[in-house]
Amino acid sequence: MLSRVAESLFWMSRYFERAENTARFLDVNFNLLLDLNKITHVENPNYWIALILVTSDKDRFNSLYDEYSAHTVTDYLVFNKNNPNSITTCISLARENGRSIIESISSEMWEQVNNLYHYLQSVTPQFVHNNPYGFYKEIKNASHLFQGITDNTFSHNEGWDFIQIAKYLERTDNIARLIDVKYHMLLSEAETQAEIVAGSEDIIQWMAVLKSCSALEAFRKVYLSKIDPDNILRFLILDRTFPRSINFSVCAAEDALWRISGSSRHRYVNNADRLIGKMEAELSYTAIEDIYAKGLHHYLEDLEQRLVKVGEQVHLTYFAYHTPEIEPVDVEEALPFTGVAGGRAYWSQAQQHQQQQQ
Amino acid sequence: MSRFFERYEPETRQFFDEVIASEGTPRAHYDKMLQRFAQFSIDDIKARREIVNIFFRNQGITFTVYGEDEGVERLFPFDLIPRVVPAHEWATIEKGLIQRITALNEFLNDIYHGQKILKEKIIPAELILGSQHFRREFVGVTPPLGIYIHVTGSDIIRDRQGNYLVLEDNLRTPSGVSYMLQNRQAMKRAFPVLFDKYKIRPIENYPQELLRTLQEIGTASRREPNVVVLTPGIYNSAYFEHSFLARQMGVELTEGKDLVVNNNKVYTRTTRGLEQVDVIYRRVDDAFLDPLVFRPDSKLGVAGLVNAYRKGNVTLANAIGCGVADDKVIYSFVPKIIKYYLGEDPILENVPTWLASDPADLKYILANLDSLVVKAANESGGYGMLIGPESTIEEQEKFAEMIVANPRNYIAQPTISLSRHPSFFNDTELWGCHIDLRPYVLYGKTITIVPGGLTRVALKRGSLVVNSSQGGGSKDTWVVDE
Questions:
Q1: Where would a tag sit more exposed on chain A, N or C end, judged by fewer CB atoms within 10 A?
Q2: Of B184, B230, B235, B232, nearest to B205 (Cα)?
Q3: CB–CB contact B247 A103 (8 Å)
Q4: B227-242 pLDDT per residue, tens
Q5: CB contact under 8 A, A102 and B243
Q6: Binning pLDDT at 50, 70 and 90, where does residue B380 land?
Q7: Cβ(B255)–Cβ(B300) below 8 Å
Q8: Which domains does chain B have, with CATH numbers?
Q9: Rounded CA Rg of chain B
């Protein structure tokens, strides 16, 4: 398969998943605020700043808006064309990638990307404001429909595997960010507030995290009603059967990568396979206590960095337009990660290309 | 006669009408069609229009209009009444095109080798050597099988008497063949009964024939030649066609950045490494093929491609430098070219042409700008054209200046009253619209022409311009055995 085609499949899938995750964050935040209404004041910008922290876009956001509010954050994350990760931008990019390989994807897949794109062009901020539930539901469903269509109309060969890799790498990254931000918030609140409200707000917030991963019901089946942070982290990071847990997503990405290259448990073919295999193996033998020992924030940050490395290696191995002569000697060191200002940045297609040229 | 055709005014005194003979009676090969349309009401036609529109929309058959807002994709206008070409007329067209393309290929071979035709002064040498499409660097380079023009599409019109004439040769990257194929699919869906009444020669094998032609010109001896289509990318107005043909042939659709040249061989960049390419069906103009040789600002091409081509490691279809033979000035010499190389008289005549580079002709052109059609020698797609009878004095004066400043770049032809074919307007009434015909000629080990071609229609009332970029549409073309 042409590298360009594989790359477009990869990014089409990745941007679609990113749009879905953003819709999930926003959706849950609205619900959360409704729940918290009685306990604390909704206007608290802390509840909105969290969404910007998730996307590591604080600087860009501050250059565009004066305050953190439902209005500004929604506008930034849903509509703003200057935000490379807004839902509208992501779906435009997904469509652009799809359009460039329209002869390679099924016509049903194209129709679905195209429909969502046109739907987003027709939606106004007022509409989202009046019916946030309906709007985010539409985005989530469109993403699920796209995945279902892909599963059922697109050959499960190499191209499909690239779609899976992209989807699960993106998802892993999003779960890690979500947990990290929530952890951040709870920590900072505990520091600033003299007395910590007796847990009920905490619990509601942790439930919101579960909900944004569609994980609340699945969690309850495992841990019954015992909603405490340990169990929630155990579930979202280490569960091997829930499709929006980190461990599951890493396994799925690993499967897809290994199918493409023919790697197996004791023999890896390239660096992408090695790195993802290492992550998967470590996750399998990690207990929640190990994570605490390392520090949750530290652990998640490390995980995100390693995901970026996997992404780089996928790019180098399969997409980079290199000829054998110019292949870097030490591939792992060839592309140091340089995020945009503000630390951890979302990995984007444009960035990947820019790096390649450096 | 049907209601639609009863009210139809063919104006046969002024125009050759494809359906109605001058006596007011239909031509024999349209009898069955008229009988069938007599059974249709306006609603029937509207229902069929809907079938066709849905088909085109679902297939994504659109084209992009330049000069308007970005992203303007339109359905290609399609007329529901098919054009019927009887087998004996087709036989003439086919023979004429084979003769013409054979001669033009000989001509290219000569121009890029001995240049006998110039030395014998059949054609003034300065016309060739001064042509912007003459590629000096390829003198002495011989493409596989000595073939330059693998895929061509000559535009054929009919004059007042119904004679088929060649209006121009498109030897570089003629487009429209996907419309020919899709029009046929649409007609099969919308008019299955009518379809069944005629013995229509099939055209569906075009993609296979194209692939076979491309494989035949591959030089790889060790294996089946690896063929790819090279497109300028998704913003090109013919991108749909490029991806359609790649899909139909089952080969890769590549952009310049998908290809890399290493050691004078061309490769595709795949997820499994590099794969060698033997034949490139390129839909990219010469000037954009290789930034090292042609335009350095081109991002559409592949650096090093031309050297690989010169070494014979990859075949390009069509070859580099073909444009020199479809220049509108050279066009006027094609009858002489046929006579010179084949010793035959042309089966398909040219439209009379005056060359602004010839002093006597130039005088005539300038004196008759209000009645002539003036064309820039190197433009296509209906751009850079003056239609005398439809032009204003200011436009004529502007053209006169341009012609005098650069006579080599202009030709003039009489305003031919192209033949007309009844076509639907608003799906309620029929108008006589001017048409032409572009058959597609494939030149591999043999010359193959799928029976038919793209009939283009000037759907604007009275307009003579059939190009899609200028509001033209198309109709299905049936070559029928009697």
A1: C
A2: B184
A3: yes
A4: 999 999 888 888 889 9
A5: yes
A6: low
A7: yes
A8: 3-90+172-200+425-480 (no CATH), 101-162+206-349 (3.40.50.11290), 352-414 (3.30.1490.270)
A9: 23
Tell me which chain B residues have a C-beta less than 8 angstroms from the C-beta of A324. Answer: 262, 274
Q: Cβ A6–B271 below 8 Å, yes or no?
A: yes
Predicted TM-score (pTM) of the model is 0.81
The rounded percent of chain B whose pLDDT value lies above 70 is: 93
Quote ipTM for the complex: 0.73
- What pLDDT is attached to residue B67? 52
A113 touches A98 (CB < 8 A): yes
Q: How far is B257 from chain A (nearest CA, A)?
A: 8
The per-residue pLDDT for B201 is 96
State how far residue B243 is from chain A, nearest Cα, in angstroms. 6
Q: At B455, list the tokens.
A: 């009939």
Cα B385-B388-B392 angle, rounded to 5 deg: 95
- State the Cα–Cα distance between residues B477 and B181, nearest whole angstrom: 10
Tell whether A102 lies on the interface with B, counting CB pairs under 8 A.
yes
Is it the case that residue A232 has pLDDT exceeding 80?
yes
Locate B288 and state its tokens: 């954009």
How many Å lie between the alpha carbon of A308 and the closest alpha carbon of chain B? Answer: 20
Test A324 with B247 for CB contact under 8 angstroms.
no
A4 and B255 within 8 Å at the Cβ level: the answer is yes
With CB atoms and an 8 Å threshold, state whether A318 touches B271. Answer: yes
Q: Across the A/B interface, how many CB contacts are shorter than 8 Å?
A: 47
Higher-pLDDT residue of A201 and B444 is B444
Per-residue pLDDT reduced to its tens digit, B188-213: 999 999 998 999 999 999 999 999 99
